Amino acid sequence: MALMDITYYSKIMDLDLSVQLLYPDAARVEEPDSKDIPVLYLLHGMGGKDTTWLRLTALERLVRKTNLIVVMPDTHNGWYTNTRYGYPYFDVIAKELPHTLKRFFPNMSSKREKTFIAGLSMGGYGAFKLALSTNRFSHAASLSGVLSFKGMDLGNADMGSPAYWQGIFGDIKEWESPDNPHALTNMVAQSDKKTKFYAWCGQEDFLYEANNYAVAELKKAGLQLEYKVDHGRHEWYYWDKELEKVLAWLPIDFKLEERLS
Q1: Are 47 and 79 in contact (CB under 8 A)?
Q2: Which pTM was predicted?
Q3: First to last CA, the chain
Q4: Which InterPro entries match (predicted)?
Q5: So what's the pLDDT on residue 261?
């Protein structure tokens, strides 16, 4: 794979943003001159950035022989949301970045059936939100995603200050209302329900109960969702292992190479 470190000017953010991109190596993949290469947007969690997936998983080795573009944007701790403090992170990923990258990489597919999104923790929420809101992605996956805030104390200092959460989502009390299974469930009715969804969470993860609750609500709303659980905590050791399963789940010719030659 060719690894590209890209800095581009975001007009809607009025600042430079970073994105890491893996591009298929013509010497190792079939159809290296394809004009329609599938693309996976891979989203980081809180405290992460565009390089995190590369630094902490075997991603580059896993896709080394697969004809797939992997896009890893840096969105800070903005929750893939048009924040109340004025930075439209959702619009960056949903609208601006795909058009920007298509100019740089004209062989990158624009077809929905070849466009995928996945993420962990905050990025799992972002993957589901973007897939439900845009109808751009055919497959969306969440690893230990924050698919619900049920049971989480957002007033806890370890979770960030109330001012931070209000800056992202607005009124925290409204966001946490037990009468509202949060934004994702409400988005299901507005989607065309053509996207396939996948979620995984470890049974020892502090988000396990929230994932169980969110998955039940999303399925009740009519979402096509495959849910897997296993032993695991909120740690990269488990996300690294589950990443391979996500890649195998995608409708691509995933050629796993167990050893580097």
Answers
A1: no
A2: 0.93
A3: 14
A4: AB_hydrolase_fold, Esterase-like, Mycobacterial_A85_antigen
A5: 45
Contact 59, 70 (CB under 8 A): yes
Reported as a single tens digit per residue, the pLDDT across 7-57 is 999 999 999 999 999 999 876 777 766 889 999 999 999 999 999 999 999
Residue ranges of the domains in the chain?
2-249
The runs of H, that is alpha helices, within the chain are: 52-56, 59-62, 89-91, 97-104, 122-134, 162-169, 172-175, 182-188, 208-220, 236-249
Instruction: Write out pLDDT tens, residues 70-87.
Output: 999 999 999 999 998 999
**What single string gives the DSSP state of each residue in 53-118?**
HHHHS-HHHHTTTS--EEEEE--TTSTTSB-TTS-BHHHIIIIIHHHHHHHH-TTB---GGGEEEE
User: What residues have CB less than 8 Å from 259, skipping those under 6 apart?
Assistant: none
pLDDT score at 251: 96
d(CA 59, CA 236): 12
Task: Give the SS3 label for residue 170.
Answer: coil
When comparing pLDDT for 151 and 41, which is higher?
A: 41
β-pair type (69-73, 15-23): antiparallel
What architecture does CATH give domain 2-249? 3-Layer(aba) Sandwich (3.40)
- CA angle 250–255–256, rounded 5-degree value: 100
Residues 48 and 69: their CA atoms lie apart, in Å, by 20
- In terms of Cβ atoms closer than 10 Å to its own Cβ (0-12, 13-18, 19+), residue 200 is buried
- Cβ distance 128 to 140 under 8 Å? yes
For residues 246 and 119, the answer to whether their CB atoms sit within 8 Å is no
